[in-house]
Amino acid sequence: MSEVQQLKESGEHSEVQVHEVVEGEHVPDGKSNSASDLPSGITPIMPSSASMILVLGLIAMFSGILVVLVYDYTAPIIKEKERLALEAAVFQVIPDVDVGAARQIGFSLTSSDGLVEVDEKTTLPANLYAVYDSTDALLGFAMEGAAQGYQDIVRTLFGYKVDCECIVGMTVLKSVDTPGLGDKGTVEKNKGFMANFRQLDVSLNESKDAVMHSIETVKQGTKTEDWQVDAMSGATITSRAIAKGIDNTVGKMLPLVVKNLAAIRLAAKK
Question: Which of 180, 177, 4, 195 has the alpha carbon at shortest distance from 95?
Fold first, then answer.
């Protein structure tokens, strides 16, 4: 006879004693001590909504703090890598530069503030990079272009020489357009398209206050003018974005460059 049966027959057990037996080690096989097995009148204790909200709030707070700490730690590292990449790209877009001997100076050039040399004490961002040889002679300029592409903004860096009034080189800083068609790697491997930017005419008018011809993107193989760009097959939107970004920059910057050319030449001799 089991312990429970003995207690029932004796009539000496109480509700608590039965509960203790049921809750003890003598549980029939195949059954569990779940909340549904508890005797009537006994309710399992559940966490309150306030405590759950508090826990979730603490988790969210610490997650936010962690994100901020990671960002604060990595932001300067990323910025420095971008600066070094841009510095290297500046030399790439000016042909025949002896990287070991050449140097560059960044300027902020605007119609409102004029020409300001950018250094560690300057808060203005550079939008013009002048490249000089070992004798401090001016070799050319590098400027950024940006325009909406198929997926996102397409950013480029292009070289400009005053003597020919032309674009002499270009590299893609950022393009996430269709892989295999308009992404950075594909564009820069397209020799035919990149050739557009070796002697692209951006001459100013006689008064030197505007570019004579806007850069025009045409269907591949139909280029007839020096200010035209042959589009890439299958990536017309990316081609137009690159050309438009450069056109926007030269239209705004070249008149200012010519106006401040004497000061820019002297900057390397300070």
Answer: 195
